[in-house]
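1st attempt posting a full record on here, be nice pls
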Amino acid sequence: MTLYGKPPPGQRKPYKPYDNGKFTHKKEYGERRPEQDSGPRQPFVPRDREGQARPWQQPRGPPTQFQQRPQYGPPQERRQGGYERRDGFGQQREFGERRGRFPPKIIPHQFPGVFTNGRELFTKNLVPGIKVYGEQLLKSGEVEYRKWSPSRSKLGALIASGAKSLPLKADSKVLYLGAASGTTVSHVSDIAIDGVIYAVEFAPRVFRELIEMSRLRKNIIPILADANHPELYSSIAGKVDFVFQDVAQPNQTEIFIKNCKALLNHGGFGILALKARSVDVTIAPQEIFRRSSSELVKGGLEVIETIDIGKFEIDHACFLAKMR
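the predicted structure (as tokens):
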């Protein structure tokens, strides 16, 4: 008996008996037997003992009309409520309609100028078709909305954390301290469409991005200045109705009180977004929040509400205050 792989004595290559009754043709490498030359190669299909191919292992044919991917037409031909493709500063393209489902209906929030679908926050896009920081654009009917991410905006985190009031109206005159590149400022611009936002920023690098954004949003006036010295821009801004501060400095509360005394109208409101770790890392955040609240009261402000936004920003809290 001859075994495969074991050559007879004196031979170097293994001896394979091609004439053992199983093959009628000596097969060389890459050569097909004569009985296989009747047509093109067929895909290998596993078969059962009776020689029948199993149904779940049948070779797939062309896709049916139900399996083909639906082709959507231009944006104006899509059904109402669909997500539309848009280009913007974020250099991203928006995804198309949800697969066979309508997106959640967008309804007005309890605060004017803010909208929600029950899970997320939105503002009406002041410049349709243009993104600011790569956010999602959602078009419902003739109105285009911008998604407001609470994890990237202290003011958005304040609203998402259950704030009871937001004294920001369509015609408000706003002083924004710590504007950075304009992420939150752009949403304030969507809300105060008939007002004006004075965006103060100290860092020249991000201030360039703020200028680019303000070229399309005409209600934003960027100011390159230090928030510690409100006298530098008091002649530009004048008296305002609302002050929002997001400045990570050890004297955050002092800066907020100084700007409110210099520029906030009597009876006006302000929001201080306080970062506890920027004040003192050796003191517990709750103790820092308590001390800051006391400083605001001593500075002539009435603290209406304190909101912990630690769900979105660690060791952060927002103070809603009113000028006495």
